[in-house]
UniProtKB/TrEMBL annotation, chain A:
GO molecular function: 3'-5'-RNA exonuclease activity; endonuclease activity; RNA binding
InterPro entries listed in its UniProt record: Dis3_CSD2, NA-bd_OB-fold, PIN-like_dom_sf, PIN_dom, RNase_II/R, RNase_II/R_CS, RNR_Ribonuclease, Rrp44_CSD1
PIN domain ranges (all copies): 62-184
Lineage: Eukaryota, Metazoa, Ecdysozoa, Arthropoda, Crustacea
Subunit text: Component of the RNA exosome complex; within the complex interacts with EXOSC4, EXOSC7 and EXOSC9 of the exosome core complex (Exo-9). The catalytically inactive RNA exosome core complex (Exo-9) associates with the catalytic subunit EXOSC10/RRP6. Exo-9 may associate with DIS3 to form the nucleolar exosome complex, or DIS3L to form the cytoplasmic exosome complex. Exo-9 is formed by a hexameric base ring consisting of the heterodimers EXOSC4-EXOSC9, EXOSC5-EXOSC8 and EXOSC6-EXOSC7, and a cap ring consisting of EXOSC1, EXOSC2 and EXOSC3; DIS3 associates with the base ring of Exo-9.
Keywords of the record: Acetylation, Exonuclease, Exosome, Hydrolase, Magnesium, Manganese, Nuclease, Nucleus, Phosphoprotein, RNA-binding, rRNA processing
PANTHER family in the record: EXOSOME COMPLEX EXONUCLEASE RRP44, RIBONUCLEASE
Name of this chain's protein: Exosome complex exonuclease RRP44
GO cellular component terms given for this protein: cytoplasmic exosome (RNase complex); nuclear exosome (RNase complex); nucleoplasm
Cofactor(s) required for function per UniProt: Mn(2+)
SMART domains per the UniProt record, alphabetical: PINc (SM00670), RNB (SM00955)
Biological process terms in GO annotation: nuclear mRNA surveillance of mRNA 3'-end processing; rRNA catabolic process; rRNA processing
TrEMBL record, chain B:
Molecular-function annotations in GO: RNA binding
SUPFAM superfamilies, sorted: Ribonuclease PH domain 2-like, Ribosomal protein S5 domain 2-like
Protein name (database record): Uncharacterized protein
A Pfam family assignment: RNase_PH_C
Lineage: Eukaryota, Metazoa, Ecdysozoa, Arthropoda, Crustacea
Length: 956, 246
């Protein structure tokens, strides 16, 4: 059963090492064909008995063997259902894994979903197909030879099983490869072989597939063209450069505002490196890991401060516009930043991008420009024959390469999503762009759900504490169906109260290591779009069994404190329980109950008691230095019939909002304390790092223009100076400052306690030494993990391997952080999308505040819609002969007798710029102050206009 | 995804074995004439020499003598050329000393020491090539040498390792698998009674997995025991025929 062979391999890892490894060759690896009578395989239905060829190129029945270069460069083509009876050799798998982890992952996904079409043949361990590397042979050549060897083995192997059959009907093995030499040698050995593009084009049943072929690099006319970009260094030179400190490695972020600018954040360096101009950016795409060379210090500059979009409306060909005009020389400015240029790309982070085709002069032509929805991504040139149909659709495109001679990266069309402007399409786009898993739950997941009708068993009740007698109620926003928290309050003795926070016991339903658990862990969080909710767990759980609905018995995880009238905690207790909520309040209803002194029922009394304690808790927290930040939050009033937004309301803040929040914070902190005590190595916690001082620079500058000295030395000092920065004549100014402060903050992250030093557990925003998320397990996976940890800590559940593994926990946390960030972006995009829809038939004048003053633009915030826009300081009729004087120190823009500074209130006109049907965007124009040539006239709608002008007069 | 994939989707390990397959074992006995007993054993690329002297009088300090049983003295050493990088100290370092103690404990449990009070049995093992499972190979080789020397044993001792990758237990781990970051459970047993005489674990893993990993290791021990038994029998019949011929 076992033949063995010892072989030598040399690897270099700093030193030359001789590695000796065993390599066993086996005789029990089967060919996977249904036809074969020789192999001892049991269920061999991957390769059909009589495959039907849909290729005109090779009409005979055949199996396909693919070469590594196809997996590496044409992975999108492989996703098509056109591929059947494909043999994947282990040589190919291993080569792919070494060369591109991304493609390897994709390939494995394809293999997992299409198990019936792809067969993996472990040729490296088969006694007849293993080849040894000859002296002097390159690894690549050896692999090619191994692939050919496997092909010819299959050929002879299959022939033996179909000796009697007609020659024409005999199954052959076809090798697909892009490598010219490999093809030639295969021909010599009698293996039928084709290029993948030849083969794909010959598939008569799948004519559209060829669109997905990646653009080949060897376009002949490219080679003798003048290169536009500097060459990238070879990987070995990059590595040695990084080692010697000459080059720096970092992640490239292109600027949102200026497509010719970007930064590279180098690990361990406070300030990121600035890059300017095409040559310095040198074909890097947002997210790539790049190697940067710093320029000498006298060439350092500062960000140009202008807002610039790549506004080519047609394919300009391979020319780079003159940059000097676009980049104003700013070497003399004071606050210069380390500046560099990209000399090489270490790892590409290309993914698939959503966007639209740029209308081309020649719709019949095949080469088109594609505009990604994400502003940070450059336009992509693709080849397609369906430009006419695709021009009205949102499509997905992948980048293949970016040769030196090409102005834009080359890519290929992957698939179409639907018509532009369609809400479903746009929703799909924003979900895809933010990598939100939104497919419906698969059968395996649904199989994990409890069967209906579901009842709490007697046994379950006995295991838990029975809290059904308590007057528990929940307070949530209106229309909430996934209620995951409820509260209770009762007086034990005159100076002693009992408060309980009851959280839905999701971990009872989502058991570790089930399909349901894995799906939830992958999704990480529920995503709330304006008109849609993408659940983390199936609806049966999220809106029914877990949701703490009123007057229904539900399982809960309770935190119960005994507190004094001064909100001092005497005792904390955690227990799994059974509860029955008495009522589900909305925030407004709860507020009414508190305020209305006629209401003397138990619930109203409880709410009053809770509210009183919450106020004390909040004060204590503020005294410790917790921040009150602000970000504009709005809600759309959606029409019930068309699902289109009809009005915008900003979310009101009531006492009850902060009351619920206060107790949730308290529960989270108590739980964090407890699980960390029990699991110092693997507790899932949440921290909010202290932002580095450099983050606060724009904030401090803005404060200065308003005449405030802001202290950012600690969160307490920051909170105090924010409270002090109030101007009576500009009420919104304080909110603006808080918005700016929010932007200086770091992201709060989940982490596993064993991976971070305890001093770094600090939560800056909440001023808590330790914090976690416990209170929303229906919509956050982290909470579910915390529930499991806590359940073990209180002896209500058992552990499992991954829970206690620090590495697993950290990996989960990383995914959760990513999903969390992405869901926030998706939510913001969804709001932006609805703002678009809202302005589709509207033009409105609105109050706005200047957020930033740039060299050629003003960035304004329209609080009513939470919308941000840029006003370009260019004349309406295109000639930029407006004499704006930019003062970078203040910063301010002056034109004639009008000076605009940060935080100034202006009036702007908001409309939907539908110059291009394709690419609609919100346009913002200045209305007041009046600047001839720039500002537009206010629209005359007496009803809304009059009060606003009055208000304005009062303000100025 | 970095590093090696210790267990492929097709269920093969890096070197082509299935999770429950041992490496190739080769062994020869009586290779030195000077020693009372000797053996050479290969477990894949791990190659070990073992020599046994005794029982004989206590050498050196008489205080080591035990009044009711024999004193088992083991010395473990690794050849300077046994690994990819040249090893400086072949013996006497902390790791070798620890290994020697482990071997002493293992064999004190297996040898019928009570038959030889106040005497000493020496076991010397030398790792010529190290490719994972050094302790295992040493125990197996030393046991074969003891058999060759004719030292009375309660039972043969056999040892085997097991590991856990993707929740699948692997038997007889080699160097690549061991350094790949998975835990290694080393077990020595007396195959007839099933007693465990030595057990160690290099890393923590969840207790849920322990029983299946331990079962795998014990199954490995028994398999190795069967193979070594065959070799032992072959050696003894050869010895028998050559004695009869003379």
């Amino acid at each position: 059963m076992l033949t063995s062979k010892v072989f030598l391999r040399k690897t270099k890892r700093g030193k030359v090492l001789k590695v000796v490894r065993e390599h066993y060759l086996r005789d029990d690896l089967w060919c996977g064909s249904e036809l074969c009578k020789k192999c001892g395989q049991e269920n061999s239905d991957v390769l059909d008995k009589s495959p039907v060829s849909s290729s005109t190129l090779c009409a005979f029945p055949h199996y396909i063997v693919i070469d590594t270069n196809i997996v590496l460069h044409q992975i999108d083509v492989l996703e098509s259902p056109a591929w059947k009876n494909v043999i994947l050799l282990q040589t190919v798998l291993e080569e792919t894994r070494k060369r591109s982890t991304n493609n390897y992952k994709k390939l494995r996904e394809i293999m997992a979903t299409r198990k019936d079409s792809f067969y993996v043949f472990v040729n490296e361990h088969h006694k007849d197909t293993y080849v040894e590397r000859k002296p002097g042979e390159s690894a690549n050549d050896r692999n090619d030879r191994a692939i050919r060897k496997a092909c010819s083995w299959y050929q002879t192997h299959l022939e033996e099983s179909q000796k009697g059959t007609d020659k024409k009907k005999q199954i052959k093995v076809v090798l697909l490869t892009q490598d010219f030499k490999n093809r030639e040698q295969a021909c010599n050995e009698g293996i039928p072989t084709y290029k993948v593009d030849e083969y794909v084009k010959s598939l008569k049943d799948f004519p559209d597939l060829q669109e997905k072929l990646a653009a080949s690099h060897s376009e002949s006319n490219n080679e003798n063209r003048e290169p536009l970009y500097p060459e990238h260094l070879a990987p070995t030179r990059i590595m040695s450069g990084i080692k010697s400190g000459k080059l720096l490695q970092g992640v490239f972020h292109s600027s949102r505002e200026n497509f010719l600018e970007g930064t590279v954040s180098v690990e361990g360096q406070d300030k990121s490196i600035l890059l300017q101009g095409h040559a310095s950016l040198n074909r890097a795409v947002d997210g790539d890991v790049v190697a940067v060379e710093l320029l000498p210090e006298d060439k350092w500059t500062s960000p140009s401060g202008i807002v610039l979009e790549d506004q080519e409306e047609q394919d300009p060909g391979d020319e780079i516009e003159k940059e000097e005009k676009l980049l104003i020389d700013s070497t003399k400015s004071k606050d210069r930043q380390p500046t560099g240029k990209i000399v090489g790309i270490i790892r590409r982070k290309w993914r698939q991008y959503c966007g639209i085709l740029l209308p081309s002069v020649l719709p019949e032509g095949t080469r088109h420009l594609f505009v990604p929805a994400e502003r940070k991504i450059p336009k992509i040139r693709i080849e397609t024959r369906q430009a006419v149909t695709l021009s009205s659709q949102k499509i997905i495109v992948a980048i293949d390469s970016w040769p030196r001679t090409s102005r834009y990266p080359l890519g290929h069309f992957v698939r179409a999503l639907g018509n532009i402007g369609d809400k479903d399409t746009e929703n799909e786009v924003l979900l895809l762009e933010h990598d939100v898993p939104h497919h419906s739950f698969p059968e395996t997941v649904l199989a994990c759900l409890p069967s209906m009708p579901w009842m709490i068993t007697e046994e379950e009740v006995n295991r838990r504490e029975d809290l059904r007698h308590l007057d528990i109620c929940s307070v949530d926003p209106p229309g909430c169906t996934d209620i995951d928290d409820a509260l209770h309050f009762r007086e034990l003795s005159p100076n002693l109260y009992e408060i309980g926070v009851h959280i839905a016991d999701v971990s009872h339903f989502v058991r570790p290591d089930t399909a349901l658990d894995k799906e939830a862990a992958n999704r990480g969080t529920t995503v709330y779009l304006v008109d849609r909710r993408i659940d983390m767990v199936p609806e049966l759980l999220s809106s029914n069994l877990c949701s703490l609905r009123p007057d229904q018995e539900r399982l809960a995880f309770s935190v119960i404190w005994q507190v004094t009238a001064d909100a001092e905690i005497q005792k904390t207790r955690f227990t799994k329980s059974v509860i029955r909520s008495r009522r589900a309040f909305t925030y407004a209803e709860a507020q009414c109950n508190i305020d209305d002194s006629l209401q003397q029922n138990e619930l109203a009394k409880s709410l009053r008691g809770l509210n009183k304690l919450a106020k004390i808790l909040k004060k204590n927290r503020m005294d410790k230095g917790a921040l009150q930040l602000s970000s504009p939050e709005i809600r759309f009033e959606v029409s019930t019939e068309t699902n289109d937004p009809i009005d915008v309301i900003s979310k009101p803040m009531l006492d009850t909002n902060s009351m619920v929040e206060e107790f949730m914070l308290l529960a989270n902190i108590s739980v964090a304390d407890h699980i960390f005590k029990h699991f110092p190595e693997c507790a899932v916690l949440r921290r909010h790092p202290v932002p580095p001082a450099s983050n606060f620079e724009p904030f401090l500058k803005a404060g200065k223009t308003q005449g405030f000295t802001l202290d950012v030395s600690s969160n307490k000092a920051l909170a105090a100076s924010l409270d002090a920065a109030v101007k009576p004549d500009n009420v919104y100014m304080n909110t603006m400052l808080r918005i700016l402060a929010t932007r200086c903050m770091m992201q709060a992250v989940y982490f596993s306690s064993g991976t971070v030093a305890q001093v770094d557990f600090y939560h800056y925003g909440l001023a808590a030494p330790i914090y976690t998320h416990f209170t929303s397990p229906i919509r956050r996976y982290a909470d579910l993990l915390v529930h499991r940890l806590l359940a073990v800590a209180v002896g209500a559940d058992v552990t499992y391997t991954e829970l206690l593994n620090r590495k697993c926990a950290q990996q989960l946390c990383n995914n959760l952080n990513y999903r969390h960030k992405m869901s926030q972006y998706a939510q913001r995009s969804s709001v932006a999308l609805h703002t678009h829809l809202f302005f589709r038939h509207r033009v409105q004048d609105e109050d706005a505040y200047v957020l930033f003053v740039r060299q050629n633009a003003l960035q304004v915030l329209i609080p009513k819609y939470g919308l941000e826009g840029s006003i370009y300081l260019k004349g309406n009729d295109g000639d930029s002969k407006l004499d704006f004087v930019y003062n970078p120190d203040e910063p301010s823009q002056t034109c004639g007798n009008v000076t605009i500074r940060t935080f100034d209130r202006v009036v702007v006109q908001v409309s939907l710029d539908s110059k291009y049907v394709q690419h609609q965007k919100i346009a913002v124009h200045l209305v007041h102050p009046k600047i001839a040539g720039l500002s537009v006239d206010a629209i005359e709608i007496p009803k809304t206009d009059e009060p606003r002008t009055k208000k304005l007069k009062g303000g100025k | 995804m970095s590093g090696n994939e210790l267990l492929s989707d097709q269920g093969l390990r890096i070197d082509g074995r299935k999770p429950n397959e041992l490496r190739r074992i080769r062994c020869s006995l009586g290779i030195f004439s000077q020693a009372d007993g000797s053996a050479y054993l290969e477990q894949g690329n791990t190659k070990v020499l073992a020599a046994v002297y005794g029982p004989h009088e206590i050498r050196g300090s008489k205080s080591k003598a035990l009044h009711d049983k024999a004193f088992v003295n083991c010395q473990y050493s690794t050849a300077t050329f046994s690994m990819g990088e040249r090893k400086r100290r072949p013996r006497g370092d902390r790791k070798s000393t620890e290994m020697s103690t482990h071997l002493e404990e293992t064999f004190a449990a297996a040898i019928r020491t009570e038959l030889y009070p106040r005497s000493q049995i020496d076991i010397f093992v030398e790792v010529l090539q190290a490719d994972g499972g050094n302790y295992t190979a040493c125990v197996n080789a030393a046991m074969m040498a003891l058999v060759d020397a004719g030292v009375p044993l309660k039972d043969t001792v056999v040892s085997c390792t097991a590991s856990l990758v993707k929740d699948v237990p692997l038997v007889d781990v080699n160097h690549v698998e061991r350094s790949g970051g998975s835990p290694e459970l080393v077990v020595s047993i007396l195959p007839h009674s099933g007693e465990i005489v030595y057990m160690s674990l290099t890393q923590r893993f969840h207790i849920d997995h322990l029983s299946k990993v331990l079962d795998t290791a014990i199954k490995g021990c028994k398999d190795i025991g069967a193979i070594l038994n065959e070799i032992m029998k072959g050696h003894l019949t050869k010895l028998d025929t050559s004695l009869q011929a003379s």
